[in-house]
Amino acid sequence: MKSKFWIIGLALLLILSSSCTAIKNAVGMGDKDDDNTLLLLSAAYVLTRSTNPCTNSAYSSGTAVTTSTLSLSSGCVTGATSSMDSNLPTWIKNNFKCSVGYVQSTYYCFKSKNLLNARSPYYKASTGLNGGSGTPNPNFIANQNLLYAIPMTPAKNNSTLSGTQNGLASIGIAVNGLAIFNNAANPPDTLSTEASTFDQQQGHPEMTGSYHHHSQLINGDGTGGTPASVNLTTQGSSALIGIALDGYAIYGRWCGDATSGQNTQATGLDACHGHITTTPEFSTATYHYHYGGGASGTTCNGSGVGTGAGNDATAGIPTIMGSYFYGVIGQVSN
User: Fold this and answer.
1) Are 236 and 247 in contact (CB under 8 A)?
2) What is the pTM of this model?
3) Using an 8 Å Cβ cutoff, are 252 and 234 in contact?
4) Is 273's pLDDT higher than 60?
């Protein structure tokens, strides 16, 4: 009987403290060294979530591993399948690579091995993709099995907002198939401190080897494994960065429209980092996110939370996402 109460108590504790440091570390939101206790807590926490609705086994994300020599082909690591189903909308089919995308029920589904499509000091020498400079953290890039279930029809959340720091394995997927993480480092650090460990692609892996971006996103080009030169977040382009777990698109600093493309730096952003207007992918004005920070005095979604200006307090640098999702989120598992 005591053991039953202990299990119930543990489950309640994990649910009530989903944003705590232990949970963030355990499910991939922190970047510190591994800890068996945290992994045990992670397993218990994940069991409280419902089953991921994107379960179609006919769509494989490939067989890529990082224990043998890897190479780059067609803009992706060899072995990581790059395929977008014909049922997906054009704005996804024309922009996403290095992952498998398909439609199931009312969700856009993405399966990703989450392997960086460029050289990095975070690849082990044995992979053939080790390269670059910088001060890496102790982790190395490892094969993942990320599965995203993202609502096909995004909807504003009119209830309690979902926090991006609530222990999710990823808060969105980038156009090159890589995980997008939130705006927080492992306390007491902020991302401005942790940024010293970003590689030349402006990302790094956490303790399980899941490579990710918090801030700038440089799109790996895959040609010969050389470092990519296209910074999707800062160089004045209105190019798509990715899609958030709530189904809304994510862009860099610049905002364009379907006719003229690149326009001007995005303005009028709320504390979620978003606003409503047209984009190169959407001729009808719709909500979308931008790399950067919200305007002074704004809230997220008009909900009264997330008030702030410029860089988020947990970051200290511009980030891809803020502390909350504007819409109702789907699910992600790994």
Assistant:
1) no
2) 0.84
3) yes
4) yes
